[in-house]
Design a protein that fits this description.
This protein is of the alpha/beta class and about 350 residues long. The chain is about 35% helix and about 20% strand. Helix 4 packs across helix 5, helix 6 packs across helix 12 and helix 11 crosses helix 12. Bound molecules: NADPH dihydro-nicotinamide-adenine-dinucleotide phosphate.
């Protein structure tokens, strides 16, 4: 059995879907209440591979909200993730994906040093960040969506916002090794990490966001922002392909501008329907088939019986591992989302 640990995108989102999640009593409660709420298993479902087998999964709502990071409720955020992991392990889930901010909090606050959660000793090989599959899917979206829009990658400048992150650095490695692209613009705040990435790649220009965006034919957003930023579409190149892989979304508003095309990044579509309700709650356009690529990684690991933390640690994702999980993804019937 596999599991998915997820969270909602904001307090407002949590209040609006509390009833559907199974706790109507939370609908009018504020952040304090969500800080003290325990994790819950709120969905059980089955996924069938196009190769035949059906597996069973559960969704664990951690009750973490991004406002906890914005309001310095760090201890609460940490407790949410560790408690959700303990619940997943106690429920007998063999492999569980740490969705959205779950893996970011795990790494940022070194939770591997905290493996005892009351009477549960966390076994970290039961968990995966899902970032290898997410990075693979985003790269395939770059390749396939640019072809749809007539953007020639060999002449294209690609800006990666969040380039030094786990997903961002893997995307940069793929773009460097697998595709011929004209220029790579590397964006993040920490200069040391940017320089280390540039040295590793042997290429890429380090830039501020405002300077980079107007130069980019393609923008890959994979920054860990608790709240999205507003950008001025007028300043962007036309055509421009934006792949927003953040959760919550890195873009603050819905862009509707001629020749600026925004694709939901790191989302896959399965070839067969899934009997879950959770993807409706997180507003997928086709909830019975679409999901976050990190969640799909746990599904793939269960189909393949690779009960191991396939994606773990930070900035260790190789192109080989992206190809390996990508092969499993295609084999079991997943494809990257390509509809704008
Ligand atoms: P990491 O924490 O590893 O990396 C985040 C990156 O964003 C770093 O380069 C960081 O660098 C940069 N960053 C953070 N804040 C800013 C900012 N204000 N301006 C510019 N850069 C910034 O995160 P992950 O790679 O694990 O995840 C990235 C995003 O992808 C997250 O939003 C996450 O929720 C989402 N995600 C999506 C998945 C999916 O299935 N679609 C799966 C997993 C994650 P610095 O701090 O130096 O600025």
């Amino acid at each position: 059995m596999f599991g998915l640990i997820g969270h909602l995108t904001s307090l407002e989102h949590a209040q609006s879907v509390a009833e559907a999640l199974g706790y109507p009593e939370y609908a009018n409660e504020g952040l304090d209440f969500w800080c003290s709420a325990p994790p819950q298993i709120v969905d059980s479902f089955h996924v069938t591979s196009v190769t035949g087998p059906t597996i069973e999964g559960k969704y664990v709502e951690s009750c973490f909200l991004p406002e906890m990071l914005m309001n310095r409720r760090i201890k609460a955020a940490i407790r949410k993730i560790l408690n959700a992991m303990a619940l997943a392990q106690k429920a007998g889930l063999n492999i569980t994906a740490l969705g959205g901010f779950s893996s970011i909090i795990f790494e940022e606050f070194n939770l591997k040093d905290n493996n005892q959660v009351r009477n549960v000793s966390l076994e970290f090989d039961r968990f995966t960040t899902g970032n290898t599959h997410t990075a693979y899917v985003i790269c395939r979206q770059v390749e396939q969506a640019s072809a749809q829009l007539g953007i020639d990658l060999s002449q294209a400048t690609i800006a990666v916002c969040g380039a030094t992150g786990d997903i961002g650095s893997a995307v940069c490695r793929w773009l460097d090794q697998k595709i011929e692209v004209k220029d790579l613009l590397l964006i993040a705040r920490n200069q040391e990490r940017l320089q280390a990435l540039q040295a590793e790649l042997g290429r890429g220009k380090i830039m501020e966001l405002e300077e980079a965006l107007p130069q980019a034919d393609i923008i890959v957003w994979v920054a860990s922002m608790p709240k999205g930023v507003e950008i001025n579409s007028q300043t962007l190149k036309k055509p421009c392909l934006i792949i927003d892989g953040g959760y919550p979304k890195n873009l603050g508003t819905k862009i509707q501008y001629p020749d600026v095309h925004v694709l939901k990044g790191g989302i896959v579509e399965h070839s067969l329907d899934i009997d879950w309700k959770i993807m409706q709650i997180v507003s997928m356009d086709v909830p019975s088939r679409q999901m976050f690529a990190c969640f799909a990684e746990a599904i793939l690991l269960e189909f393949e019986q690779w009960h191991t933390n396939f994606s773990w640690g930070r900035n260790l994702i190789t192109v080989n591992k992206m190809e390996q999980i990508g092969t499993a993804s295609v084999k079991h019937g997943f494809s990257p989302l390509l509809s704008f």
